[in-house]
Amino acid sequence: MTNHHSFPCGRSRREFVWEMGAGFAGLALTSLLSNDGFFTRHAAAEESQRALNPTAAKKPQLKPRVKSCIFLMMNGAPSQVDTFDYKPELEKYAGKQLPADKKFTNSGGRKMGYLTPAWRTFRPGGESGLLVSDYFPKVRDHADKLCVLNSCHTDSHAHGSALVAMNTGKTLIGRPSLGSWCVYGLGTANESLPGYVVMLDKRGGPISGQPNWSSGFMPATYAGTLFRPVGDPILDLKGPGHITQPAQREQLDLLAKINQRHLDERPGGQELAARINSYELAYRMQTATPDAVDLTQETAQTLKMYGVGEKPTDEYGRNCLIARRLVERGVRFIQLYSGGGHLEETWDAHESIEKNHGRHAAEVDQPIAALLTDLAQRGMLDETLIVWGGEFGRMPFSEGKDAPGRNHNPYGFSMWLAGGGVKGGTNYGQTDEFGFEAVQNKVHLHDLHATILQMMGLDHERLTYFHQGRDESLTDVGGRVIHDILV
Amino acid sequence: MYCRPFYLFLLTSFLVASLAQGGDTAESPPDFETEIVPLLINRCLECHQEQNTSGSLSLVTRQELLKGGDSGSALDLKSPLESFLLQRVHAGEMPPEKQGQPQKLSAREIKLLERWVAAKAPWPPGRKIDLFERTTEVRAGRDWWSLQPIQRPAIPKLNRLQQPTNPIDAFILARLEQKQITPAPLADKRTRLRRLHYDLTGLPPTLAQIEQFEKDASPQAWEKVIDELLDSPQYGERWARYWLDLVRYADTSGYERDQEKPFAWKYRDWVVAALNSDLPYNRFITEQLAGDELPDRDKRTVIATGFLRLGTWNDEPNDPQDYQYDRLEDLVHTTSSAFLAMTVKCARCHSHKFDPITQEDYYRMASAFWAGPIAARDRKLLGGPKPDELGFPDVLGWTDVHAPPAPLHVLKNGEREHPLHAVTPTTLSMIPELESPFAPQPKGARTSHRRLQLARWITDPNHPLTARVFVNRLWLHHFGEGIVRSPNNFGFMADPPTHPDLLDWLAAEFKSGGWTIKRMHKLILTSQTWQQSSVHPRSAEYRGLDAGNRLWWRAERQRLDAEALRDSMLATSGELDLRRGGPGFRPTISAAALEGLSTKSAAWQASPPEEQNRRSLYTYTKRGLLPPMMTTFDLCSSTQSCGKRDITTVPTQSLAMLNNQFVHSRSETLARKILDAQSEPQAQVQKLWERVYARSPSDEELKLSLQHLIVQSQHFQRDRQQQSARQENALPRQAASDSKPEAATQMTPQELALASLCHVLLNSNEFLYID
């Protein structure tokens, strides 16, 4: 609503930009505006739609700090006080209850327990001396690259909706995910690969599933593409043996001609044009995708560094290495899930922090460290943003007497960023003395999203998509860029 | 926050009304009902009422206002303008900021409050304000549009355009006329017939059917084909699928073991039969909710209660006690979503955030299911009643197993450890006119009769939601979009109706017509709106006026959904097996697809080939293993009620159509059939075009096709020669490993070339889209 009223003559911001752009720098703006059907409202020529390619690379709105983002999603929610938020006071208060004036929702009605210190020791890492617990000894070696946000908070204490919120900005399903906004705003730098790739944990998909990588009300072309962790990364990459590449090319050329004739008789058929486009993308994906995930091209040293072929790092190691290869190939946004299915198969450590986090951290610590090393060695870390975190955090207290697990906590948790343009070796924001709730420099998930978009070269207030009478954005009416953490 | 024209309309009319009343006498106290109540509900009550007394302050009665909260009385009657309430408001502390955004009252609102407080806050005696009594900026009240009685609106009179005979068109044209938009012309007969066949049966017409229809110049031709298709058994098979999406139909339980639910398919067949026999919708609802409680109960009505058995079922829940409440939620959610398009489940832990559904309401609806097999019992029962309790050994059904049931308690924050009072089993409070407690279990009755009473409430002719929600679903599946575009949500978060009057007229017509569905289909299908072309000569211009085609100035082109696409490929190749009903078949799923799943290939035994070509409706739905080809084309998850599937266009669909063996097999079969009948390439192309597109190729298309046959024959010929050269030189062991069992290897290069052409056609937009 506000957007409509703040521009002259009741126009939307988009229309305003169009009018301005038409006079000054028409071309660049045309591509910026072309994707949500706005362009067609002004372009009389139906012809232009044919060339309409919704994922063509676009000029960023701002000077980008990075080209790609890798989101390491710790599905199930890791505990901040056991990993990146050191709370020595918990030693002192161990066995006591959280003070009664601390209000919270007891998610799932779990048993109320007692304040419990970190299950593993925190130690300083790097020159900065940033504190990281022994769950992440190898990531700690990169402490000087990490900017830990200790004051994150979110809007739901339930996995399904909190994860959807972490991915789409809202707890209700149906909105475009962060990766979709990135591809919408920037296009892809490599037309032969999806601009937005999601790799799930092979134990299963996250609760709520597809809405986590959906494009919501935007065209599906902005949705995340699932790469399967086993077998062909995408199903049906290869046809029957007798359809060789030249034979298939012949088919596709004829198909394009038939489809074009069909489209010519149906002017404005954007869905038809999009489907025509999808065949060319599919054709190129047939060679580009296997190549991107072909780890035989990597040296034995690299594979070893990521822990490929070794337990328990093999799966996440492969995924991290594939992520680097995708970044090299211009993929904008990659999300790697650690944890899948339900409960202890994820970071959802109700039963035991030590058992759960011990298991999951051991799977990802070395691969994540290797990814940071590898990107830095190749000079790519400056152009890549790494985001680590879960959908919320965990309570500083146990789930009953001598119960070694912790319940959900949306009030305060930690995430970290690394890579191009973030101040490494720093902590930003604080939780209270218990590590229970964010109290200083609070970072709402909208703030995180605004900051990630900013680093990608997108202004979270100007990156809008017109939908049902409203300029929608990822951060809606909230969100602020955390300039303090940017170099 | 959200721009909702309908809501804005309400808000504006309220503002106009209040300004008109308050404007002339600046110093008199404001009117309580029109000025103060809206202000309190809008800005204060969300946090200061019985369910949520922040600072221990409630503002629903004057007594409570005077009593105040933790900080003492909110009102100082001696010096009213010093009241704590005004102090907090002036300081901008109340209402408090939200997500970092200040919520300070406007100068006008503050002035209103001051005048009211200055007059010592007059409040009609006994008046208690209810958060849900009216709609505010952040939530719907009981005055929400979808909860108002359905009045049959007058059929609009057109000014410029000619008055149509079908009232649907009058509603549509009236809006177009306002915008000075002319609707698209009637689609040609071929296009309309193809659209009609897909719409009613999910299958394409044959060339002969099209030609027959084109020849029939009688005025009754259109109605005749509608009647024929509505009478065909394929109609029920098509429309049952939409219902199965709504009721989360699957053949297994989900979770780790994903056990089969025996006889689930009987429910599926019951839906098909109900639609084909035009079972009135009110009876359709009642049998599903309470088929076991009906006086004329029989095996068929008990099968219908399978509706209550279709949800996921976990044989090893984390906490079996808690799991009872999760099962209740599934039943409440599916019932309220499918029949009422209301998200009652959101009120499990607290009153609904957006709709006038209290936490009490949630437990009221849940109480209808409480006497059923909710609690943990023998795992072999898969969460259902024993066969002797149900009365039929070979039915997946539902009945009460401990009636009358123990009291169901409202749970504080939804937590089992914190039970509050026992709920009185009652209908929901959002429609006060229809609110009444369920009668106690009749003497001698075996079941609690609560589900029957819930069904009677839902099917009450005065229920504002039931008919609206259903006609909206009909509209959605006929047109591709609903009048309310969120078919499972008619609450505050819903998309407002594009044509509220039309929705109400259809709902009224549906009820007065005895809730028969086929009559509504026919009414819609005979409208000009449905029959218009999807191409409009002025579309470039009109898209500027109505980009989303919300006014229906042309038809929306639709892509075949997963089932229609698969069935069409089989129909085109002449392989579609139209045997109806019975247990589902297990489709062949590629090893690669099975490998990526935790269950791996051991968990899946495909049915024999003779079962594989049945309609997609009869696919055995294993929750842990939905066929990838179908999910790629947007088959929805069977975990929760799905009112509208996504329609996506993504490269992985193109990969599936290009490479999946199922598609290749259809192309090869069709090629062989054509080659058996035709020896001349030109005749082959002609025949192929007729089979796939039900038309002849143009000269250009014929030329391109013949060229394709030559080029591909050469490709395959060359490959074949190279292959045999390799085989002659190769060791026998290697040759064996290269062997392919597929039929393709036995085909000649000419046959493969025709299969290649066929494959191209099956991949084309003309095949996948309905104009």
Structural summary, described in words:
The complex is a heterodimer of chains A (487) and B (771). By secondary structure, chain A is α/β, with parallel strands linked by helices. Chain A is built from 15 helices and 17 strands. Chain A is 33% helix and 15% strand. In chain A, the strands form 5 sheets. In chain A, strands 1, 4, 5, 6, 7, 8, 11, 12 and 15 form a 9-stranded mixed β-sheet that branches. Chain A has 3 domains: 2-44, no CATH class; 68-233 and 293-485, Alkaline Phosphatase, subunit A; 245-281. The two termini of chain A are 34 Å apart. With 771 residues, chain B is mainly α. Among the domains of chain B are: 5-131, no CATH class; 280-458, no CATH class; 560-651, no CATH class; 661-770, no CATH class. Helices cover 45% and strands 2% of the residues of chain B. Chain B has helices at residues 5-22, 32-43, 62-67, 84-90, 107-118, 167-178, 189-201, 207-215, 221-231, 233-246, 264-276, 281-290, 299-304, 320-340, 359-367, 387-390, 450-458, 466-479, 500-512, 517-525, 528-531, 539-545, 562-572, 591-595, 628-632, 651-659, 661-677, 681-693, 699-729, 732-737, 749-763, 765-768; strands spanning 48-49, 52-53, 409-411, 419-422, 558-559, 769-770. In chain B, strands 1-2 form a two-stranded antiparallel sheet. In chain B, β3 and β4 form a beta hairpin. In chain B, α7 runs parallel beside α9 (221-231). The longest helix of chain B has 31 residues, at 699-729. Chain B is globular and about 105 Å long. The interface between A and B is large, with 82 and 79 residues.
- Termini separation of chain A comes to 34 Å
Derived structural class of chain A = alpha/beta
The helix content of chain B is 40-55%
Strand content of chain A: 15-25%
Tally of DSSP β-strands of chain B? 6
Tell me the structural class of chain B: mainly alpha
Strand and helix map with partners:
The complex is a heterodimer of chains A (487) and B (771).
Chain A: H1 2-5, H2 13-23, H3 26-33, H4 38-42, H5 47-50, E1 68-74, H6 89-93, E2 122-125, E3 130-133, H7 137-140, E4 146-153, H8 159-168, H9 178-186, E5 196-199, E6 225-227, H10 245-264, H11 270-292, H12 300-306, H13 314-328, E7 333-338, H14 353-377, E8 384-389, E9 393-398, E10 406-409, E11 413-419, E12 426-428, E13 430-431, E14 438-440, E15 443-444, H15 445-456, E16 465-467, E17 470-472
Parallel strand pairs in A: 1-7, 1-8, 4-12, 4-15, 5-6, 5-7
Antiparallel strand pairs in A: 2-3, 4-11, 8-11, 9-10, 13-14, 16-17
Chain B: H1 5-22, H2 32-43, E1 48-49, E2 52-53, H3 62-67, H4 84-90, H5 107-118, H6 167-178, H7 189-201, H8 207-215, H9 221-231, H10 233-246, H11 264-276, H12 281-290, H13 299-304, H14 320-340, H15 359-367, H16 387-390, E3 409-411, E4 419-422, H17 450-458, H18 466-479, H19 500-512, H20 517-525, H21 528-531, H22 539-545, E5 558-559, H23 562-572, H24 591-595, H25 628-632, H26 651-659, H27 661-677, H28 681-693, H29 699-729, H30 732-737, H31 749-763, H32 765-768, E6 769-770
Antiparallel strand pairs in B: 1-2, 3-4, 5-6
Helix pairs in contact in B: 2-5, 7-8, 7-9, 10-11, 12-17, 18-19, 18-20, 27-31, 28-29, 28-31, 29-31
